[in-house]
Amino acid sequence: MGRLLKQKWLLLKINHKRSEMVSMGVNLGLCAEETIKCSQQLDQLLNDYEKCTNNGGSEPVHESSSELGQYIKSLLKRTAS
């Protein structure tokens, strides 16, 4: 997977995770275990994005291109409905 594709994919995941975290914070509270776990996942995605942009993509991103395809399909299904 190319560096620019990784960056765009990570941005999609970051935006999705951020929305998920805000929703959890509103519904469950900011101190709820689920909200905190989601926040930590968002932090990891942000760290991955920073590594990808600062190191020219030399750091491996843990997801495979098939997972990227599945993620894009799920986003398309959500936007179609």
Word description of this protein:
There is one protein chain. With 81 residues, this protein is mostly helical. The chain has helices spanning 3-28, 33-54, 65-80. It has one domain (3-80): MYOD Basic-Helix-Loop-Helix Domain, subunit B (Irregular), CATH 4.10.280. α1 (3-28) runs antiparallel to α2.
User: What fold name goes in the CATH topology slot?
Assistant: MYOD Basic-Helix-Loop-Helix Domain, subunit B
Oligomerization state: single chain
Separate helix tally:
3
Helical residues, percent: over 70%
Number of domains: 1
Q: Using the 3D structure, state the CATH architecture.
A: Irregular
Please give the radius of gyration in angstroms: 14 Å
Class derived from helix and strand content: mainly alpha
Q: Note the beta-strand portion.
A: under 5%
Main sheet properties? none
Which stretches are poorly predicted, pLDDT < 50 over at least 5 residues?
none
Concise account of the structure shown:
The protein has 81 residues and is mainly alpha-helical. It has helices spanning 3-28, 33-54, 65-80.
List keywords for this structure.
single chain; 81 residues; mainly alpha; MYOD Basic-Helix-Loop-Helix Domain, subunit B; 79% helix; 0% strand; flat; Aspartyl-phosphate phosphatase Spo0E family protein
Could you give the topology of this structure?
Layout: H1 3-28, H2 33-54, H3 65-80
